[in-house]
Amino acid sequence: MSSNGRDPNFCQDCGSVLPLPGLSDTVRCPRCCLCTPVTEFLGREIQSGVIFNPAEQTSLALEEEENSELKGPVIDRRCTRCNKEGMIYHTRQMRSADEGQTVFFTCIHCRFQEKEDS
What we know:
There is one protein chain. Strand 1 and strand 2 form a beta hairpin. The strands form two sheets. This protein has a four-stranded antiparallel β-sheet, with no helix packed on it. Strands 1-2 form a two-stranded antiparallel ribbon. The chain is about 10% helix and about 25% strand. It is α+β, with helices and mostly antiparallel strands and about 120 residues long. The longest helix is centred in the middle third of the chain and has 13 residues. The protein contains one helix and six strands. Its main location: nucleus. Keywords: DNA-directed RNA polymerase, Metal-binding, Nucleus, Transcription, Zinc, Zinc-finger. InterPro entries: Rpa12/Rpb9/Rpc10/TFS, Zn_ribbon_RPA12_C, Znf_TFIIS. GO terms for molecular function: DNA-directed RNA polymerase activity; nucleic acid binding; zinc ion binding. It is found in: Nucleus, Nucleolus.
């Protein structure tokens, strides 16, 4: 924490993560454009790293996902592809919070997928 009790890694106005200090004498918030003096970062050590998953592990996970059983609540909805009854559904909030959820349906017979904005 800095001397005034706030974390200098975050903008004091909007709370966004600040970029790493560069060659200029200030760090500019990418969201609200507030400039923070680079002296706020003196004496701080910043470390980062990237970990890649092995390719074999990733392809196995995708294969398992394709061969897995469909899970979820089954409803009486007719598939538009195979015309059979029975679809599994799940919901996600894909749009803004003041709009309805998006419902994703998957046919238990042919695995056809469709969505409906509610």
